[in-house]
Amino acid sequence: MWKAERMEKTVGEINERIVDGSVHVVDAIEMCDIVEELGAEGAAKEVDVVTTATFGAMCSSGAFFNLGHSDPPIKISRMWLNDVEAYAGLAAVDGYIGATQLSETAGLSYGGAHVIYDLVSGKSVHLRARGFGTDCYPAKEVETTITLDDLNQAVLLNPRNAYQRYNVATNSTDSTIYTYMGTLLPNYGNATFSGSGVLSPLCNDPTFQTIGVGTRIFLCGAQGYIIGEGTQHDPENGFATLMVKGNLKEMSPEFMRAATFEKYGVSMYVGIGVPIPIINERVAASCAVRDSDIITNVLDYGVPRRKRPVLAQVSYEQLRSGTIEVMGREIKTSPLSSFKKSIEIAHLLKEQIERGEFLLTQPVAPLTLKGSAKPMSQIERKTLVREVMTRNIITVHPDDGVADAATKLIRGDFNHLPVVDEGGRLVGIITSWDVSKAVANGASNGKVADVMTRKVISSSEDEPVESAAHRLHAHNISALPVLDSERRVIGMITSEDISRLVAGR
Fold first, then answer.
1. Which of 105, 195, 216, 328 is an S-S bond match for 361, by CB 3.0 to 4.6 Å?
2. Is the peptide bond before 159 cis (omega within 30 degrees of 0)?
3. Kind and range of the H or E element at 324?
4. Spatial distance between the Cα atoms of 435 and 321, rounded to a whole number of angstroms
């Protein structure tokens, strides 16, 4: 509920101070010390506005635009900007280009975010469009180049930005994986995180006392607005989001970036600054949140499922220290968002308010304190690895002879042997090809440890067969050992197993 309560200051009163130059503005980092020194009540009297900011990858971003009518006119049914397809199902010459849409020719190296960034940077963009021809829109094709100035309107409208906080990503598997949280090294080799922590707008106003529909914000160098809750808005679990808009023609390339995540795709870095009017003691107390107060989960992205295991809980203070401890391991951390850029935005917004260039707005409606980030409703049940894997497998030990391994391969009528230690835990794999090379190199009398592959791509019994098939294809291999949570080998899934499944369907 949007509660009415006695306020020490109103947004209107704060705006009067902005206009007459007497306003006192601090950023969210400075506010922590002020509240600690003066208390929430004293800080509320002393400070008028706290500036918050974030600069991170926002996949759920994009822009609406109007091209103007061609001669002869065309009703566009499909269109591409620099070979990136934009959605044309709006009106004759309106479109929406999503940040993550990929170029049909450049693939993962260029996408919608790059088109938006190129336009804001003043570059020309190649337009190619098709229509089906009507009496009033007879043209069927148009091809030209456009700049941002050529567009009648260009509106950055991002369905989901400024996540309150993010989960931390790490990887338990033996292979490097590539995700929207960046490249994750094998065997807990690193952990990545995002979000501005102490500067996060939604961490400084988690109950939306001042942030709401109509709140004026700094958006990529321009003045924009919050237009509602973002998609996957889940404030009850600390994952609130914002939907924002602003005039693309007023934005600066200094506060947005197109980004390519290796082997994953394209995203866009968006600079957002949100001023929080200190209207009462309760708001002041909320703005005293520190990195040590903001706790998030460390998830195992090596498990390719919707619900990933939670390995630990850590604070943003721990994340920024450079290392965290997870399951008895010290893991190096690295941010995907720029804290330095967030500070720059918070300071720039502070200066704009102090110069009287940025007035605050009273929200016209509150953001909801409830949300939904529930999973997709799926009718078709996914087949899991345990349903198709081979359970009766033969293993070898590192100290076994190559000749013994060759005998097991021939008698077993298969091409892979997991290599396990005394506890049955995977330490390598040896294939018929490894044995052939050993014989060719005169090493047939050697040990398995001398010829085995130590870096093994594996699977778990609870993952979908689709994920295992993707891994087989990505690494150009034909079999995956199936491991339990203790890395003991419990089966094997091969390309033949998957072929039989597909044939049966």
1. 216
2. no
3. strand 323-326
4. 47
The catalytic position among 59, 136, 220, 287 is 136
Q: What is the pLDDT of residue 413?
A: 65
Q: Where are the alpha helices (DSSP H) in 220-280?
A: none
Q: Please report the pLDDT score of residue 505 as a whole number.
A: 60
- Quick one: CA dihedral 385, 389, 392, 394, positive or negative? negative
3-state secondary structure of 124: coil
* Contact present, 236 and 24 (Cβ < 8 Å): no
Q: How far is CA 352 from CA 11, 325, 357, 358, 481, in A?
A: 17, 41, 5, 6, 59
DSSP H stretches of helix in 445-494: 448-451, 465-475
Within 13 Å and on the Cβ side, how many CA atoms surround 413?
3
For the stretch 207-219, pLDDT in tens is 999 999 999 999 9
Burial of 399 by CB count in 10 Å (0-12 exposed, 13-18 middle, 19+ buried)?
exposed
Least confident of 6-10, 152-156, 283-287: 6-10
Confidence band for 3, pLDDT divided at 50, 70 and 90: very low
Residue-wise pLDDT for 101-123, tens only, equals 999 999 999 999 999 999 999 99
Dist. CA 412–CA 217, nearest whole Å: 67
Task: Tell me if residue 136 is catalytic.
Answer: yes
Distance CA 70, CA 270 (A): 32
Identity (one letter) of the amino acid at 92?
A
* The residue type at 439: V
Torsion 358-361-367-369 (CA) sign: positive
